[in-house]
Amino acid sequence: MTRGPNIVLITTDQQRYDTVGPRAPDFLRTPHLDHMAREGITYSSAYAQCPMCVPSRVSIMTGRTVAGHGMAHNGHSSEVVDRETSLPSMLRQAGYQTAAIGKMHFTPERARHGFDEMLLPADYYTEMTRRGHDVQPMRHGLGQNELYPGMATVPESLTLTSWTAERCVDYIRERRDPTVPFFLWCSFSKPHPPLDPPEPYYSMYLNSPIPEPVFGDWSEDERCPEAFRRAREKWSLDLIPPEVIRAARAAYYGLVTHIDYAIGRVFAALQDLRMFDDTLLVFTSDHGEYLGDHHTGAKTFFHEASAHVPFIVRLPKSWDDRRHGTTVADPVTHADIMPTLLAAAGQPAPGQCDGQDLFALARGELDSPRRYVDGVGRVPDATYHAITDGRWKYIHYPEGDTEQLFDVENDPDERTDLSGSSEHEKRRADLRQELIDLLERRGSEWVRDGRLVSQEPFGDTTRDRRNESWPGYHTERHDVDVRH
For the whole model, what pTM was predicted? Predict the structure, then answer.
């Protein structure tokens, strides 16, 4: 068997697409990801189909779209991940040693799903407790979904971000079997809230020209989809003062830079062992974060801030036709990671795999490249279906039979909803029909008699919603599943 390259998959949690690459603010420091992009291929139309943690991670593990694996919410990964055909199991069959370090969000927590070994945030918290420090992480009172800034309660060297990088370095230097190739999933928990960077990252961007939130012409009046309005009102995200949003954005950018610098340690370990040039590197995030855009925060919906994710693949330098320093505009998603890595390892993808080989896509070798990525929301009171080709995007909300149409290429902030424009009526109708056809082929219950199913408005009021939900989900018991 020909030995495949070492593979490092780096993921972050809740990182917006516009924090890396040409749309990132000029002041934002991401030297290692920028270097990776210069040496690699940037997939500029990468989307999380269901912008929540577990659906994206299950797609990575199975090579299946959200429609294929069916996990359109933060449920139990063990219900849909088949150990025998999971990504790490398939790579093990190709002779790889496999390790997962950082946030996996598997359920049950210690389910390995085919990995040889795992180190999780729970191990970090246990280690910190056993060390007996006077201060412990996350003792500031901010929870897992609050859009308020804070500062880490431990120094940089003792944060979970630094711990994750350190354990990856330990694996590369000391714990792997040098006689076989390795697959390492390095998974950072940030910049997911709480937005609590340590110094110097907390102060790094306080005096920078932080971009103001963007507001769509649809996000403030009766044109706002009721499901979208309900989600932000439940957590009162629309009531956060502008100065708090600005500080939250500064903290968010600090977390992004902290991760980038931590990635530098992983790259340095590979470089010291003369493995960096010929290691296959993949970087992406599971979904984005509104950060105050459209008067909201968190994720879940299929707008650019929430669903569009950074996605970079750096091929080994010994490979021919690497297409380094290029950008691919075709729509891609997390299900594409498995077939891409298996192709690098010389291993065929399992038959049920829905993804496509991103190397072949970049080289123009796919006979039928994907035309669209479809999006789905299955939270009971926030259901939607969407479709995008990376240029245009159509979203349908059954509640109230509400539509949105965006020209993402010319309006990347989605400030203007074109669904009511007579000039764009044909585009809206065509994309709506594409979505109907896609759902019909799957036998979806959300299409009936060739039409998208609609629902009557739920009838709840803003007052009802603000009395219903608390966004913090904070706990100081780290064995508790907070479902964030």
Answer: 0.96
